[in-house]
User: Which sequence fits this backbone?
């Protein structure tokens, strides 16, 4: 075998998966058909859950300091502010509050972490064929080379070659016509402490501050008829409609670093696994960009899959454990798709009834403080629980499958630490030595012994910070034997 796992796609999901697998001691190769890393911003929002995943990968360092904390969204009708939503840390002991930062910077930090772990993406390496058998997958690259791996994971985006080669369906629908996206410098007095948006009969327009003094401009523009415009055409169109839709006569688009046109689709793969081929991120689910859920959901897929695949590769769990990956993550993707689809329909409403519902009903409701806190909590994905999945359970909270916050703990020698900092490719037992010994007998060296600084039950915590089980040695043994059989 050339590697235990071949990861196709060196975007945030593929890089996160590769880092997590290497943390677990699994050999990885990462290939990407692009000639070099992308430099454009693309996704530009990292919610609290995403920061937690990056922290557990030891790949968060520096990003919070680079980011912009634009934690309000103010919506205008003309020059009148009709709604202001405030985002922030929902108070659940997270690694960092939401960050506005370029996807390119997140990827760069993940590449640095991958290098620290001994890996590197192989650029200019397109996958053209993949044949699987009982022992592994033989991948054929565009230059004729072959790579032999035990498992193949497609993290190669919505047009996934891996998904197509595996024959996995990707049904869905188109939700909107054209959106224009431009990253640019502006001559403006707009407040950079938050995002501004304008409702307009010809389509909404939003402006989000970005690091380095730039702005992300997004406009729904179904009247723009060119199906394959160049970047200059998109920028010129945005330059013209910017003052028209905002009503600001003193706003000017100076120069752009990136421009794109896209349509919003909603798609979900029929399955996340076919034999020794698995999917993660946009290769498995595609939805609207509103709410910043795409990269967030994708890196969550990667972390969930990594520890399960690692146990199977090391022979410490049967392949049945991989069925829990789809069982835990696909329902979440379904929920995210529904929410982002509803948000898209609200944002692009153009008929009288749709505008009335948005402007007269939803806007007043969304100005309510407790509902805004709920929106922050929902978009953060800190609420995600797998308690209803095959590894979940009932009883008093926290229940098996629930997220465990970043608790203050001590190591056995009394050194203070944090739970999530100790995970990083490992399991954790919070409790006495007998419970730790029971977990170690089943999991080997990839489990740490911690003691919470406050009152807490004895817990076995998964590498993705979800509760595996509560209880002493007998319960830990029972749950692990059942899950890993």
Assistant:
């Amino acid at each position: 075998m050339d590697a235990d796992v071949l990861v196709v796609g060196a975007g945030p999901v593929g890089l996160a998966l590769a880092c997590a697998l290497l943390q677990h001691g699994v050999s990885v190769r990462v290939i990407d058909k692009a000639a070099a890393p992308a430099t454009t911003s693309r996704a530009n929002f990292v919610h609290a859950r995403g920061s937690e995943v990056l922290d557990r990968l030891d790949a968060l360092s520096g990003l919070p300091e680079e980011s912009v904390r634009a934690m309000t969204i103010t919506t205008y009708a003309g020059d009148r502010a009709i709604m202001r939503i405030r985002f922030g840390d929902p108070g659940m002991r997270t690694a960092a509050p939401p960050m506005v930062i370029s996807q390119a910077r997140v990827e760069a930090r993940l590449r640095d972490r991958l290098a620290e772990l001994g890996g590197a993406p192989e650029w200019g390496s397109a996958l053209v064929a993949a044949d699987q058998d009982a022992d592994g997958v033989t991948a054929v690259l565009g230059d004729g080379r072959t790579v032999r791996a035990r498992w193949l994971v497609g993290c190669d985006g919505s047009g996934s070659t891996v998904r197509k080669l595996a024959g996995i369906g990707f049904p869905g629908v188109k939700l909107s016509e054209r959106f224009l996206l431009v990253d640019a410098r502006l001559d403006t007095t707009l407040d950079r402490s938050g995002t501004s948006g304008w409702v307009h009969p010809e389509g909404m327009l939003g402006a989000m501050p970005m690091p380095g003094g730039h702005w992300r401009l997004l406009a729904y523009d179904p009247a723009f008829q060119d199906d394959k415009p160049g970047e200059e055409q998109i920028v010129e169109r945005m330059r013209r409609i910017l003052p028209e839709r905002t009503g600001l006569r003193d706003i000017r688009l100076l120069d752009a670093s990136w421009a794109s046109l896209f349509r919003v689709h909603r798609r979900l793969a029929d399955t996340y696994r076919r034999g020794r081929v698995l999917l993660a991120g946009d290769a498995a689910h595609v939805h609207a960009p509103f709410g910043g859920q795409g990269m967030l959901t994708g890196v969550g897929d990667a972390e969930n899959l990594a520890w399960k695949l690692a146990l199977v590769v090391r022979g410490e769990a049967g392949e049945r454990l991989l069925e829990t990956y789809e069982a835990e993550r696909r329902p979440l993707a379904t929920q995210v798709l529904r929410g982002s689809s509803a948000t898209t329909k609200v944002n692009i409403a153009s008929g009288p009834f749709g505008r009335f519902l948005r402007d007269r009903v939803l806007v007043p409701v969304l100005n309510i403080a407790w509902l805004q806190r709920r929106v922050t909590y929902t978009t953060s994905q800190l609420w995600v629980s797998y308690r209803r999945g095959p590894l979940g359970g009932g009883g008093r909270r926290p229940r098996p499958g629930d997220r465990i916050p970043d608790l203050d703990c001590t190591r056995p020698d009394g050194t203070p630490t944090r739970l999530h900092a100790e995970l990083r490719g490992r399991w954790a037992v919070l409790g006495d030595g007998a419970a730790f010994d029971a977990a170690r007998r089943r999991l080997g060296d990839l489990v740490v012994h911690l003691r919470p600084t406050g009152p807490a039950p004895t817990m076995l915590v998964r590498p993705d910070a979800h509760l595996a089980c509560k209880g002493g040695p007998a319960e830990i043994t029972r749950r692990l034997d059942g899950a890993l059989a």
Notes: DSSP finds 13 helices and 24 strands in the chain. The mean pLDDT is 91. The longest helix spans residues 323-347.
